[in-house]
């Protein structure tokens, strides 16, 4: 199976390095993505928006022959949902890592502080305590050292979707910072935060209790959960 790994904000393809071995050893073909504007700290970010990130992943998917599993962490969840909207016939499953699908008109996070054309990684006190669980001082230092500013447009641009066939693409939601039971409660109560997720016909929830960056705090466990989802899809 071809597995496309889309990182969240401030991260490039290398953020999946500790997750990859389990998936490659199982015989899958991995395609970790470095999205436009995330090539380096010095890379230009002006004019790069959410649509550019979606287009980059669509182009990658178009070059793959077989069915594709998309994996999106955090803000990458919005990207993979838009890719499933653009190429529903090619996507076998979408796996949301502490993330979920972003509906029409929504933005990933337009409240993040920006500096010019970019959104730097905020101070740790800008995150919820649940997000930082298991992210010890060493991991925090490593994360901050590797962090690349996110293009401002990616955080602030509205999502645009066109094909209702996206709701037929099976989804796996890996809940980390907060339990999946909370997401299911929100779905049952009609909470707008999960309105798009509620429209997907086939959704499985898997709990992986840790902070918002399981690829750093629990990479082997995350890899095993992704592998299980891929195996069920195959």
UniProtKB/TrEMBL annotation:
Transmembrane segments annotated in the record for this chain: none
Entry superkingdom: Bacteria
Pfam families linked: Abhydrolase_6
Residue ranges annotated for the AB hydrolase-1 domain, each copy included: 3-224
Classification via InterPro entries: AB_hydrolase_1, AB_hydrolase_fold, Sec-Metab_Biosynth_Hydrolase
Coiled-coil ranges from the UniProt annotation: none
Protein name in UniProt: AB hydrolase-1 domain-containing protein
């Amino acid at each position: 199976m071809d597995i496309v790994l889309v990182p969240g904000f401030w991260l490039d393809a290398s953020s999946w390095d500790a997750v990859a071995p389990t998936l490659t050893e199982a015989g899958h073909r991995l395609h970790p993505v470095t999205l436009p504007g995330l090539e380096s700290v010095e890379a230009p970010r002006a004019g790069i928006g959410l649509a550019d990130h979606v287009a980059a992943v669509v182009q990658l998917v178009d070059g793959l022959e077989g069915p594709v599993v998309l994996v999106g962490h955090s803000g990458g969840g919005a990207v993979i949902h838009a890719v499933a909207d653009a190429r529903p016939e090619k996507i076998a499953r979408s796996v949301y890592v502490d993330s979920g699908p972003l509906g029409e008109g929504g933005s990933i996070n337009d409240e993040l502080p920006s500096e010019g054309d970019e959104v730097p990684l905020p101070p740790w006190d800008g995150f919820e305590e649940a997000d930082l669980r298991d992210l010890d001082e060493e991991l925090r230092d490593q994360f901050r050292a590797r962090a690349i500013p996110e293009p401002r447009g990616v955080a602030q641009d509205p999502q645009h979707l066109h094909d209702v066939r996206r709701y037929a693409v099976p989804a796996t939601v890996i809940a980390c910072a907060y339990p999946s039971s909370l997401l299911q409660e929100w779905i049952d109560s009609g909470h707008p935060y999960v309105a798009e997720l509620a429209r997907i016909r086939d959704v499985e929830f898997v709990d992986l209790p840790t902070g918002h960056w399981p690829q750093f705090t629990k990479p082997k466990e995350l890899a095993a959960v992704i592998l299980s989802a891929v195996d069920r899809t195959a």
